[in-house]
Amino acid sequence: MTKIASTLGLLLIGNLILSTPGFAQVAGSTTVLGVTVIEARQLALGWSVKKSIFGREVYNDAGVSVGKIEDVIISPEKNVTYFIVNVGGFIGIGGHNIAIPISQIVEQSGKIVIPGATKESIRNLPQFDYASDTAKRDAFVKSAENDLTIAREKANELQKKSALLSGEAKTKMDQKYALLQVEIQVVEKKMGEMKRAGTTRWQEFENDLNVDISHLKLTLANIDR
Are 74 and 12 in contact (CB under 8 A)? Predict the structure, then answer.
């Protein structure tokens, strides 16, 4: 793994092994924040996006510049990082942006290299355009509504199963249904608030809604256990 890949990989790690002191724990909970002392030292040896990546030339195997890094983007799933490279311009004027997965980037003699790339092949890649706030909101709403649909279908399934049961088994099934319904209603309420806020304020509700959706997914995952 290259220094670039390993550094950005560390930045994306969600479940870090806390082997030494030097991390913060939220009072009254088991939530751990930050990185360990060892991890911080490893990060310090890596590439700083601001200092060492933005504006850097990108080369092919032959040492020919094929573009310049304009941005680094983490996918919505937070599991893939992309370099946004400006290509096809002349002395910094014109051109367009493309997205290159970090897995296709290597470091060679201090240079950022895309193996096998040519100016022509790079220029022919699909153009990358930043999504508008409206597009981001629509994608977020679509994903949340899909999660709600799955949860509602599961709730209907639990109701049907409950109708065929009796005694303690029925009681347990009804409890699962009631718990799932509560989670669904919480997400529906937050979704309604976000939609009423319009396209200019929807991000004020994004974090809270993400938390509620995570709880809903966890409940769904535990339903059949």
Answer: yes
Are 144 and 154 within 8 A, CB to CB? no
Using a 10 angstrom Cβ sphere, with 0-12 exposed, 13-18 middle and 19 or more buried, the burial of residue 140 is buried
Q: Please identify which residue in the block is written with the tokens 């304009």.
A: 70
What residues are paired with 87 via a beta bridge? Answer: 96
Mean pLDDT (the chain, rounded): 81
Confidence (pLDDT) at 20: 42
**8 A C-beta contact, residue 75 and residue 81:** yes
91: left (phi over 0), alpha (psi -120 to 50) or beta: left
Q: What is the DSSP letter of 130?
A: P
pTM to 2 decimal places? 0.56
17: its two tokens: 């092994």
Parallel, antiparallel, or unpaired: how do β-strands 65-74 and 57-59 relate? antiparallel
Residue 22, pLDDT > 80, answer no
In this predicted structure, the answer to whether residue 84 has a pLDDT above a threshold of 80 is: yes
